[in-house]
Design brief:
This protein is α+β, with helices and mostly antiparallel strands.
């Protein structure tokens, strides 16, 4: 039985279809210690391993019924009669010495290539030749198939919780795909309306109408939230910067590693959350980048789109997208680092207390009511530069060590896709006591990416220094440290 793409899933196909520079796949580089055999797995060994796991993820052997969107109905997921696991696996060897620079250069090329829409939308590569006998698995999956949180759930299925290959999650069967309303017995839409708008659109309108009649307060509240979001974010648009010009199809990928305990120290001493620290550190990198270019720093800040997980707890194995968005203005014009962090915390807190996420969801739902032939223009408007300057994601991963082929995984380098005219993006994922920032950019538009990465690293060090000084015995969070630590935190970054 085939399954129809949701309008939100189809959005990522449309964004890619509308502009050659947009690559709508997510992914990661997973770095492992040597295996007990002292070598990376072969392609055949990896294929055999995956074949025992992908039964929990049937969509990984399905393809789109039509590689393009548009018309009166959405594409559907259908079994690929020619599916061959080995066709989705490749092998690569890094040039010596196989360090961070060589891995980042290889990842940049891997992530710059689009997935082939004529077959299941994912690829995986075995990377050998890393320093110290390490090896890696690189993967990319189209965003129409899975979101960031869903990709972490997939990793839980493909990886093990102990060196001997134990994976208790495999004992839990994946849920059956939810049947569409049009496929359920007794679910019928008015024929004329279905013919005029397309059956998929009629089903969406029917669902929305029934929910509106049975939950009028929900509908009214969502509509009000959507109007507030449009008025606030559309009329007071995101500032235009050199980071929001047309981009190319090449990518540069860099990684920043941070102990999770350091971010918790900042959170505990200076306030906010770990996510607020991620945002403040990123804001510092963006400030340095614009300053180095001699650009005016937007007084209200650079606006970041922060995807928010809306996946129910019982949908850990469900693919597709379950996300909404928060829009937060990063205070890049604030010269004081501690002040920048404090302002980020306050802005983040005010958004959580407001109805913005609900408004964003309502906008996505409303766009989903449009027939596919019209939906593409609505989808592009929801990811346009007038709404936000960049995307920042922060996805919680496994708190414990995971394994593959008996080898412990040490690092995860995450990728966030770049929409058209968005030259830089940041993904953060926590794993086994560390947080890894994956920073992706168009190298033609951001040849000076090192400026941002170095400033992010410096901001982390200075915030941590200030947090440790604040946390000394006899000092409370309300009494920030002065002296050397405070002076260091007041540097340009």
């Amino acid at each position: 039985m085939s399954t129809r793409l949701s309008p939100l899933d189809a959005t990522f196909l449309e964004l890619e279809q509308a502009d050659e520079s947009a690559h709508m796949h997510i992914g990661a580089i997973m770095v492992f210690e040597p295996t007990p055999e002292g070598r990376p797995p072969t392609g055949e060994e990896l294929a055999e391993h995956l074949s025992t796991r992908l039964s929990a993820l049937p969509r990984y052997s399905e393809r789109l019924s039509d590689p393009h969107t548009g018309g009166l109905s959405w594409p559907r997921w259908e079994p690929d009669p020619a599916f061959d696991l080995l066709a989705h696996l490749t092998r690569a060897a890094l040039p010596q010495p196989g360090g961070e620079r060589e891995l980042a250069a290889w990842a940049s090329e891997f992530f710059a290539k689009r997935l082939d829409r004529r077959r299941p939308l994912w690829e995986m590569a075995i990377i050998e030749g890393l320093e110290g006998g390490r090896w890696a698995l690189a993967h990319k999956t189209h965003h129409c198939l899975v979101d960031g949180v869903g990709s972490v759930d997939v990793a839980y299925v493909l990886l093990d919780t102990s060196p001997d290959g134990a994976n208790p999650l495999l004992a839990t069967s994946a849920p059956e795909p939810k049947r569409e309303a049009a496929e359920m017995p007794g679910a019928h839409s008015p024929r004329l309306r279905a013919e005029a708008l397309g059956l998929d659109t009629a089903v969406n309108l029917t669902r929305a109408g029934l929910h509106g009649m049975t939950h009028p307060l929900d509908t009214l509240g969502a509509a009000r939230a959507a109007v507030e979001l449009v008025v606030r974010e559309e009329l007071r648009g995101a500032p235009h910067t050199s980071l929001n010009e047309p981009i190319g199809s090449s990518r540069r990928f860099e990684v920043l590693r941070v102990p999770l305990e350091d971010l918790k120290t900042i959170k505990n001493a200076l306030g906010g959350t770990v996510n607020d620290a991620v945002l403040a550190i990123t804001a510092s990198g963006l400030r340095a980048l614009l300053e180095a270019r001699g650009e005016e720093l937007p007084p209200a800040g650079l606006r970041a789109m922060v995807p928010m997980n809306t996946r129910p707890i019982d949908e850990h194995f469900a693919l597709g997208n379950r996300i909404s968005s928060l829009f937060i203005d990063l205070p890049v014009a604030e010269p004081d680092l501690l002040g920048r962090h404090h302002e980020t915390v306050e802005r983040s807190r005010s958004l959580k207390d407001a109805r913005q996420a609900r408004g964003s969801t309502a906008m996505l739902d409303a766009a989903g009511l449009a027939p596919p032939v019209l939906h593409a223009s609505l989808a592009r408007s929801l990811y346009a530069t007038r709404l936000f300057n960049l995307t920042i994601t922060n996805v919680p991963g496994a708190p414990q060590t995971l394994y593959a082929f008996g080898a412990p995984m040490r690092e995860v380098h995450p990728l966030v896709p770049l929409a058209a005219e968005h030259a830089i993006g940041v993904a953060a994922v926590s794993y086994d006591g560390n947080v890894f920032f994956g920073i992706v950019a168009d190298p033609g538009r951001v040849p000076d990416l090192d400026v941002a990465v170095d400033a992010m690293r410096a901001a982390l060090d200075q915030l941590l220094s200030a947090a440790r000084a604040t946390a000394r015995p006899g000092r409370s969070r309300a009494q920030p440290a002065r002296g050397a630590a405070h002076t260091a935190a007041r540097s340009r970054y």
